[in-house]
Amino acid sequence: MFDLIDSSMFIEGSIIAKYLILGVFLLVIASFVAGYIDAIAGGAGLILIPAFILTGLPPQLALGQEKLVSTIGTVAAIKNFVKNKSVIWSVVPAGLISALAGAYVGAKVILLLPAETLSMVIVGLLPVGLIAATVKGKIKKSAENQVKTNFLAIFVVCFIVGFYDGFFGPGTGSLFIIALALINKFGLLQASATSKIFNFSSNIGAFVAFAIAGKMAYLIGIPMIFGSLLGNHIGSIHAIKTNGEIIRKVLFFTVGIMMVTLSVKYFTGA
């Protein structure tokens, strides 16, 4: 009898372990895809946050985990853009601190919300992030090669976008790109490259707030970080060579499906 019980428990444990391994593997794939897309057009959170929630992570932990993976993953893209001399450093000081401060404040605000309310906020704000990630393609033709510097505008915009990053996150990179293209007339590659510096800063601000609140799962985040690093590396190289139009189309389709799935999950309680 005891042998039978032990055998049953062993089989059940093996099944659970297989599901855990499969779940982590799928999250690593999601992290790779998110990193690749983020390096080109922004929008890693549009993939990661729904993926984390659909695997069972609580909303606040999902937001914190996204910051853990995206913050470190972005380093690979920054390295390639800096090496390619695509970053416009003259505007970086103005936006770096304001983006970090804005994200920290935004994260502190979101941590005050109950999980049920936050779930609805995520479903409601996903379309905002999706629009930010796709509209960017419409303004690229108006971007000029003549870079303009407006430190006050950059400071204010980076604080506002940084707050959004800490409060929610998806599409933040694209919002930074839009601001740089419209306000400072950056070319698309310059805007994408420089936005990574600001996005990294805002990620750090939100990361600190979530880490202090204990909303991180570091152990399962390690393999996802490697997936994100690889995705960012390949995506940034692709961004330097192409305009990434196909990526925006794939992003729109993928996130559209995830939005429907999440909406059904939270509105029906399934």
TrEMBL record:
> Can you say where in the cell this protein is located?
Cell membrane
Keyword Transport attributed: yes
Q: Which domain of life is it from?
A: Bacteria
Q: Which InterPro entries match?
A: TM_pro_TauE-like, TSUP
Q: Keyword Transport: yes or no?
A: yes
**Spans through the membrane:** 15-33, 87-111, 117-135, 147-167, 204-226, 246-267
Coiled-coil residue windows? none
Q: Which UniProt keywords apply?
A: Cell membrane, Membrane, Transmembrane, Transmembrane helix, Transport
**Can you name a GO cellular component term?**
plasma membrane
Q: How does it sit in the membrane?
A: Multi-pass membrane protein
In the record, the note on similarity to other proteins reads: Belongs to the 4-toluene sulfonate uptake permease (TSUP) (TC 2.A.102) family.
Name of protein: Probable membrane transporter protein
